[in-house]
Amino acid sequence: MTVGVTPCLSLAIERLTQTGSDNFAIWVLKAPLSSAYGFHHCSWPHSLTRKWLAWQEMFSLQTQLHLPVTHNDLETIEENPTHPSEDNAIQGYGGRLMQDFGIGLWQWLFSDSIRNSFAQSRGVAHGQSQMLRLRLDLRDPDLIPLPWEIMQPEAGKQSISLNQKLLFSRTISDVDPLSPVERAGTLRILLVLGENQDVRGRPKTKLQLENEADLLREVLNLDNAIASANSLATPVKAEVETLLQPTTAELIEALETHNYNVFFFAGHGIPAPDGGLLYLAENQALNGTELAQVLVRTRVTLAVFNACWGAQPDCREQRAIPRSSLAEVLVHQGVPAVLAMRDSIADAEALSFIEAFTSAIASRQTIDSAVAIARQQLLMLYKFNQPAWTLPILYMHPEFEGQLIQPLEPSITELPTILPSNLASSRFYAFLRPVDTDTVVPATSVRGGLMRIGRKSDNDLAITEKWVSQSHAKIFCREVETNLNEPSCFYLEDDSRFGTFVYSQQGWRKIHHQEIRLYSGVHLKFGSLQGQTWEFAIEVEPG
User: Fold this and answer.
1) Distances 312 to 102, 183, 325 between C-alpha atoms, Å
2) I want to staple 10 with a disulfide (CB 3.0 to 4.6 A). Which of 29, 55, 262, 417 is the partner?
3) Alpha carbon 411 to chain centroid distance?
4) Are residues 43 and 24 in contact, defined by beta-carbon separation less than 8 angstroms?
5) For residue range 204-244, what is the model confidence (pLDDT) as tens digits?
6) Helices (H), 30-166
7) Which of 107, 144, 106, 111 is nearest to 39 (CA)?
8) DSSP string, 427-452
């Protein structure tokens, strides 16, 4: 396996029609170890159907209930109560339903050999100090409407799409080959506002859409996102062009005339057999199959849809139509990544998600990582027992690694491209010096705004203790005060296996894969409390 490539575990689920309508095969399509390839078959339990029916009655706005499996004793299933007995118990009931259904989905998917495959793959990722990329290929259309993003191993554990050690997305294996993806240095976004409706079902006026366009443009232009992005990388520039209720010809011309890498649609959409329908303007509708042609031809990397049910297949008589959702159709025909909504989403929820998502993209996160960060933001704002955080669905082409913006080389990722102009003229300098040692060890300065610490000899400060990682941590200068009588701002970022210990009034505390600000006089230990104590200091430059 290539060093630096994110380990990936890709799973497929398909119905075994020869052995009964409720039997499914689950197997590994891709794994970081040959021993992690496995196969398992199992039946779909009645208990999951009951929970899924309860979920739809509680959270879904669709009037027709969907069934993944047609049970012979369906009447018995539907007779079970699905609502709490008292109105004041609804909030707690929603949280329990979310958790129970998530645990049920997890236990069904990760059983027997698949559970072992997942454990081995996570072990590989942990050993490489990386996240595990987990992709799910749902080959039976009746499984697509289910909220697989809520899966969790047990009560109190994170859901799979919220876990900070996992990058979860859906995928499709039967796809057209992926054209080479350009990892750009600029976000070039085409923002399309189509025909929409207000809460009373009436079309929005032109003025309402223009105000909505201004708001979305403000979110997408990344000015605030870059300022809040916790990254030392060179800020990502963004160019946003807006089309307000265009005709189909105007949309195609815009895509073919400019080199956009992100297509963003906000408006009204409905499920339909050919990839759903997007309403651009009055009497101007576009289906997913038609849109896919122009997006692939113009080399758009990411398509985002702030429209209802973009990730939902069309259904007939409670059964899903194969390859009918907008997201599926686009990825199947060669769009690298598609982000769409599983159900109806409120404007406030969508804007919160988009703002957090673009902020993460601005800090050069991969698309699947940015979706996870934005999903966590929705959870914090709208709570676990509300469906908002479960609505965004990410589909990624199996050949796509998720990098939308060109990452900086490691040598320059750790520092701003241009150091602050007044760094050289600052009267202060920072250094580390050993504490309580009989050996005379000279203080090591943070030269040029960066110090690398670790066991390797090419570090700025090489510490040979066995618990210190090869590349353990770095101390860097993020910003410089404009007043030369004030010291610079220094931070420590831990990249180690065993962590870094920082002394405060409460005693020693451990930071691990975290970043903290350093103040003059703080004491540090690298890797173990048994290690050498170091003092970080900021002093006035002599003379």
Assistant:
1) 19, 29, 5
2) 29
3) 25
4) yes
5) 555 555 666 676 677 666 554 554 444 444 567 778 888 99
6) 46-59, 74-79, 90-109, 112-127
7) 111
8) SEEEEEEEES-SS----EE-GGGEEE
